[in-house]
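Appendix B, example 12.
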Amino acid sequence: MARSPLTLAALASSAVPELDLVGVSRHGSAGRGDYDAAILTGRDGRTWVIRVPRSERAEQEQSADLVALRALSQGVRARLPFAVTQFAGQAPVDGTRAIVSEFVPGAAVTLGAIDVELADSIGQAIAAIHALPTSLVTDAGLPTHSASEAHRGAISLVGRALETGLVPAALARRWQQACDDAGLWQYTPTVINGGLAASSFLASAGAVTGILGWQGLAVGDPARDLSWVLGARSEAIADSAFAAYTRARGGVDRRLRQRALLLSELDVARWLMHGTETRSTEIVDDAVQMLSRLVDDVLGEAADPIGPHTLPVLAVDEVEALLDRTERVS
């Protein structure tokens, strides 16, 4: 049963005794999603959010997010052109814990609603994350992945996917060529959010106001944070995001967009492997259908390495569905 807003407000007062609350309202749908959550209004006008995980996966995600948020010092936050929530306090409840943090204003973003102006702001926001010093990640003991490790990981994933016998030959050739292209993997790892999707962003008046979900904070491949953009409804939106990113970061990674495209396609392979490893016929069948649609989109280019001007490989609704699935896997 979902916890009521008043119950959550009481938990918040326990977690942060100095809170002087004058209002509370439910955040999200009652009894649905991974969290019970409420928006809290203080007498001083500040707004907070309390979240209680409803599953073990959500609890692990919340714990990882909290570690990452603590690594983002005030100095680091000052270098970002958007807000990042502040941890305020926690309280035990029913074998888990309620977390109170500062509420970040802005409207939730969906992939289909992104326009060129917002895409530009998204590109700048991602570039700002990637410009942060890698020491903030290493000092916090968070993961660091080299380019060679990412390359080996892609080779392993492709190899395991091909062993299923379910990957169409055109995609197999395409992915193997990308894995064999050593130049594709010559990049400098950066600080990455590690789990970005359209739903990670909050926006107002065509600009990013905040980014949610930092549990994947790491040093790794910058293409990971940009791969989801390639599922936008038009190439102009992806162009805008990548152009803004390049203006901010410079042309230090000439193969960034190509690698981002590969990573977006390999998310389908990852979904296939998840279905295989969990022995889920439903997931495997779903992945096979996605592979079929994917090969239809890239068939004309399957003989060539992944190129920077390849059209988006999945429709908007398909990408959003895949992002939801991969979030559940992670």
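The beta strands are 21-26, 35-42, 47-53, 87-93, 96-102, 107-108, 190-192, 201-204, 207-211, 218-220. Residues 308-313 have pLDDT under 50 and may be disordered.
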